[in-house]
Recover the amino acids of this structure.
């Protein structure tokens, strides 16, 4: 069952209850969790947070923590499996699922209130209820009629049934054939925090990092990514007017599409950038030379390009984007700029949401203990 | 000099205004003796000089010395009482033995009566709205937040909250719990606050 009203049907239900928060570990889920945690803290909703990595972990996490818990919020997990079947919950436990993994399991969609999906994706072609589920027709019915008529009716019924089953099979096959990603969960959580008027820069930043993660990991097509961030753009724009320079704020700016160039040297960033490196065939023997040529065209001395970006000359630092853009057509490169979310902090260099994605990914994937 | 001892007493207790000193009964006894002699001398002189007014000034000086002694002694006792009051809020109804030694018997009796009074007052609080008393000593300053985010460092097992909820504390699990419930566990090192 889908939730119609984010605020009344989801958030207000949680108010004043203990919540079990099961969060998958990907960038989007972490950002969503941050936004939700911020909301829960404001409203003193006590929660238990458990990170889950797979179905087995989901099961153990639920079994360990299900005492006295009536509301479970699943972030980026559980949408694609039949929750009621796998977790075997009590009758009165309610699951709120906020999952960007698609397709959503059909049993979750047509659950009568125990599993509630927080966000309805319009892109999903969910089969109709009648096409999937059907009461097993009472075979006993009209048994007392005898003779040819009854036999014919039974045959007819069976044939119908078989046709229906075949149709169901095709529908289900088409529906579950491909798995893909939907709108980032953090965008939905951001919408919620906007509805309860608590959309500060922390929530905005978390939302933009999640949106950037879908772009960086190519989880969605670029056009879809742009549509997903539509609401985010509006929120960011509406906070621009509060122009006080003493606090952090999120801005939307044109930025070079070079991951992590603010933290590395320019040369290293160019060498690893997905829009530059494959197009210039940097993996070949001649790669190093072409890269040097690009730098020369851009007017960056090697010595400058090899030291870290933050200690480069100020003029060069400002001209990175413009010189890269002017050189791109000559080297037959795609457009090397994009609209990026930046976090501007007082007394600190700005931070890009894209860089944050890679930083979080590194932390998730690097197992230290 | 008159009232020298009592000034000494006050100065000593003034030297450490935050902590409580041992009760100086020896010194107080000396001061009381001084007051007693002053009083006897005054009485003799007053009786002897009903018609002769030449001794009246002496009597007056002694009398004001007496009053000063009395006033200073009261100030000393009062400041100790205030300190004992704060002891109740800091240590609770049971004093550690080393603090107990610092109090005189009368002071200790006052302490236990104050403590009983406070306890019965706290129990009576909020009874009309269904609470069974509020522990006023719990948060002497308004807390920043009623809840806090904690991470569990050991496999502690089940924790039952005062509202009946059961929380499973496992290693590395994170919870957002009422601060009053976790304080003791944080102090024991089972939980760690996340800031």
């Amino acid at each position: 069952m889908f939730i119609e009203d984010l605020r009344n049907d989801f958030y207000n239900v949680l108010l004043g209850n203990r919540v079990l928060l099961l969060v998958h570990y990907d960038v989007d889920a972490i950002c969503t969790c941050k936004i939700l945690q911020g909301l829960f803290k404001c409203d003193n909703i006590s929660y238990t947070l458990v990170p889950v990595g797979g179905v087995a972990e989901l099961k153990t996490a639920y079994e360990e923590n299900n005492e006295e818990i009536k509301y479970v919020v699943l972030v980026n997990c559980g949408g694609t499996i039949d929750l009621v079947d796998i977790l075997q919950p009590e009758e009165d436990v309610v699951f709120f699922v906020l999952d960007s993994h698609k397709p959503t399991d059909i049993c979750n969609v047509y659950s009568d209130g125990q599993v509630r999906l927080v966000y309805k994706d319009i892109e999903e072609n969910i089969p109709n209820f009648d096409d999937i589920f059907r009461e097993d027709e009472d075979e006993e019915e009209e048994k007392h009629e005898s003779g040819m008529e009854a036999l014919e009716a039974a045959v007819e019924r069976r044939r119908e049934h078989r046709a229906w089953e075949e149709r169901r099979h095709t529908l289900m096959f088409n529906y579950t054939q491909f798995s893909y990603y939907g709108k980032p969960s953090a965008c939905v959580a951001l919408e919620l925090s906007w509805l309860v008027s608590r959309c500060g820069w922390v929530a905005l930043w978390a939302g933009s990092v999640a949106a950037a993660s879908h772009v960086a990991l190519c989880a969605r097509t670029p056009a879809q990514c742009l549509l997903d961030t539509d609401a985010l753009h509006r929120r960011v724009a509406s906070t621009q007017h509060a122009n006080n320079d003493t606090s952090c704020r999120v801005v939307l700016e044109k930025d070079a599409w070079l991951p992590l160039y603010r933290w590395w040297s320019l040369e290293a960033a160019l060498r690893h950038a997905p829009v530059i490196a494959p197009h210039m065939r940097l993996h070949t023997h001649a790669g190093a030379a072409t890269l040097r040529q690009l730098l020369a065209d851009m007017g960056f001395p090697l010595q400058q390009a090899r030291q870290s970006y933050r200690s480069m000359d100020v003029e060069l630092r400002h001209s990175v984007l413009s010189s890269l853009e002017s050189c791109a057509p000559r080297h037959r490169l795609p457009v090397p700029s994009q609209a990026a979310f930046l976090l501007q902090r007082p007394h600190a260099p700005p931070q890009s949401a894209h860089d944050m994605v890679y930083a979080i990914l590194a932390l998730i994937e690097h197992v230290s203990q | 000099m008159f009232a020298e001892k009592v000034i000494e007493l006050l100065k000593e207790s003034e030297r450490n205004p935050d902590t409580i000193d041992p009760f100086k009964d020896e010194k107080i006894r000396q001061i009381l003796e001084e007051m007693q002699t002053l009083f006897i001398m005054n009485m003799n002189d007053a009786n002897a000089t009903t018609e002769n007014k030449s001794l009246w000034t002496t009597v007056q000086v002694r009398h004001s010395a007496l009053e000063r002694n009395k006033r200073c002694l009261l100030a000393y006792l009062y400041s100790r009482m205030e300190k004992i009051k704060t002891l109740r809020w800091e240590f609770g109804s049971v004093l550690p033995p080393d603090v107990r030694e610092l109090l005189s018997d009368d002071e200790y009796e006052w302490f236990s009566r104050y403590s009983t009074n406070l306890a019965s007052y706290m129990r009576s609080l909020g009874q009309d709205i269904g609470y069974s008393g509020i522990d006023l000593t719990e948060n002497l300053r308004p807390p920043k937040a009623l809840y806090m985010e904690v991470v569990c460092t050991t496999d502690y097992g089940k924790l039952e909250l005062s509202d009946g909820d059961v929380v499973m504390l496992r290693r590395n699990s994170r919870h957002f719990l009422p601060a009053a419930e976790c304080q003791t566990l944080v102090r024991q090192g089972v939980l760690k606050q996340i800031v």
Q: What stands out?
A: The longest strand of chain B covers residues 147-152.
